[in-house]
Amino acid sequence: MRMNYRLEELLPVVQKLTERYTSKASSSITYERAQQLMGAVLYCLNEAWEENGQEAARGSEFERGELREKNPFSSAEKVYEIGYYKLIQKVEGAKRLYNEKIGLFQSYGNRAYYDTVVKGMPEFFLRYDPRFCPQDSILTLDYPVLERLEHLRGADRICRYLECIWLEQEFLNCFSEETVRRILVTNNMEYKELFVNICAELLKKVLCSFMLEVRPKAEPFERAEYLRLEEMIQQTDQSSLEGLFITKLRLITAATHFECTEIEKMERYLEQAIPNIAAELINGAAHNCLQNMV
To answer: Does an H or E element contain 264, and which?
Structure first.
C-alpha cells in the first residue's frame, strides 16, 4: 500500500466516520469499534490506490509531498471517498455478474460447494457494510478454490473468490454433468460431504488420461492402464511430473472452447492445482493405490 499519510491526517477521517456511525449522538466508542473504523478507512484508502492507474506514475512525487495540492489524491479524506465509491462499484458489479451466472451454477451434489455459492453469497451481498466494515468478508468460504486468498479481505476476497468460481464452472461445463459426477464418485464415494475442489478432481482425471494418451471418460481406467500410469509416475519426480502436467494442460486448454475466458487466464488458474495433483499421484503410485484416487 503506497500511502504516506500520517496519523494526524487519518484521524479526522476516522472522526467523521465515527460521527456518521453514532449519528453524532455520542463521541465515545469502544476501542474495538475504533479499530474497526480505522480499518475501514485504511481499506478504502488502499482500494483507491489499487484501482487508480496514476499511483505508479505519481507515487514518488506524492511521497515527497510535491503534488499534495494539485493531485486529486491530495488528502486522506478525498482518497477515502474515492476508494469507498470504487468499492461500491466493485461489489455492485460482482453482484450483477453473480445474478447473471447463478442460474446455471452446478454444484454436482457437493454440499460445501452449494452452501458457499448458492446460500452464502446472497448473505454477503445483503450484509456487507462498505462504509463501516469493508474489511469483513462475512463468509468463511468453506468450499476451497485453487487460488490462495488469505492475503485478501472484505469485498476483495469475495470478488476474487467468485472469479475463481466462474473459471471453475466454465471448465467443468466442458464435460457433461454425468461425466463429472461419475469421476467424482470414482475418486471418492463420499465426495458430496467433503471439502474438496471439484475442478481439481476432474483435472486430475483428464491429466492422467492425456498421460496415457486415451480419451477422458467417466469410467475408471482399465487395470493395464493403471499399471502403465503407475510405472510412468514412478519413473519421474515431483518437479518433472509438474512440468509434464503443465505441458498437458496447454494441450487440454488448446483443445477446449471457453466461451467467456481467455485461455491464458484459465491456464494460470488451473496450474495452481498441479503441485497437489502431482504429489497425490506420486504418493498413490508409491503405495499401489492409484485406482482409489483417479
So the answer is: helix 263-271
Domain that holds residue 35: 7-85
Identify the helix (H) or strand (E) that includes residue 208. helix 198-212
Neighbours of 11 (CB within 10 A): 14
Q: How far apart are CA 68 and CA 75, in angstroms?
A: 7
Q: Are residues 171 and 278 in the same domain?
A: yes
Is residue 261 over pLDDT 90? no
Torsion angle, CA of 285/194/264/236, rounded to 10 degrees? -10
| 220-231 pLDDT per residue, tens | 999 999 999 999
pTM for the model stands at: 0.90
Residue 168 inside a domain? The answer is yes
Looking up cell 465515545 gives 28
CB 281 within 8 A of CB 204: yes
* Residue 100 located in a structural domain: no
Do 115 and 229 share a domain, yes or no?
yes
Please list, in sequence order, all residues whose beta carbon lies within 8 angstroms of the beta carbon of residue 190, skipping any fewer than 6 positions away. Answer: none
Q: Indicate if 146 and 196 belong to the same structural domain.
A: yes
Neighbours of 12 (CB within 10 A): 12
Tens-digit pLDDT profile for residues 171-220 = 999 999 999 999 999 989 999 999 999 999 999 999 999 999 999 999 99
Q: Which one-letter amino acid corresponds to residue 289? A: C
- 109 and 202 co-located in one domain: yes
Residues 69 and 124 in one domain: no
- Number of structural domains found in the chain: 2
Are residues 126 and 272 both part of a single domain?
yes
Q: Does one domain contain both 131 and 246?
A: yes
Quickly tell me which residue has 476483495 as its cell. Answer: 156
φ, ψ at 62 (rounded to 5°): -60, -40
- Average per-residue pLDDT in the chain? 90
Q: Which helix (H) or strand (E) holds 147?
A: none
80 or 51, which is more confident:
80
